[in-house]
Sequence to fold (278 residues):
Amino acid sequence: MADRDQYVVIGNPIEHSKSPQIHSMFAEQTGEAIEYKKILCPLGDFSRVVREFFAAGGLGANVTVPFKLDAYALATTRSSRAEHARAANTLVNKGGLVLAENTDGLGLVTDIVRNLGFPVVDKSILIVGAGGATRGVLLPLAEERPKRIMVVNRTPDKAHELINSIKTETKGFPIVLSSGGLHDIVEDEFDLVVNATSSSLSGDAFPLSPSVLGRNALAYDMMYGKDKTSFSRWATAAKAYQISDGLGMLVEQAAESFFLWRGKRPETRAVMQALRTT
Fold:
């Protein structure tokens, strides 16, 4: 495989990652000669691991938890999306210079709008959670021109900070921005409810009332797993009109990374179908 261009995904833990499988399918369908591996990176050692990989000829890396902030800090240049998120999930080796990109938001929007057929324009959106996952998708969602975005979090100050962070970029947009704690939603219904917390994978009960779901609402979990998450169970019990997990977002953000590296845009639906059956 020495003749193949080298790419990796770096994280800790990393064994669960589907990225090698996804990019192998992308490479096969586009005829690109690449090899894509996993790297389990020791905590506190991200910079050394990336620099050694790039020095050995590696061309690109995907970055997952807990290193997205480290990837942003390491980069020589950063895209506007990475700058806003202050985090990166994709690195490109450009002759020793390192470009940082954040494709999470593009992946989410593409999955919701194209794959699920749910246009975001003029919709009201509730995002639960104010961590790095929300930071990466907030501006791309706002750029779709919804009529409202509200971010809620157990710690309201973090939600306020995130909403304030996009006010300059969305100035002039016909959009209402708000934020608060989990109990600050009063008699509100939303067209799109996005779970951006990892608590749904731990089995913790989703902390909101089903009344937040509008009549034709999409309940979208940015997490995914073999079994239903607690958010999915909550949405099912609440009779949400449409429910989706984050597998489509995972594949679509990977497709954006692949396009950035190789200049070819892979077809994603077949890849998603293959992952659902494995």
Residues 5-102+249-276 form a domain with the Rossmann fold fold (CATH 3.40.50.10860). The two ends are 25 Å apart (CA to CA). The chain has a mean pLDDT of 94.
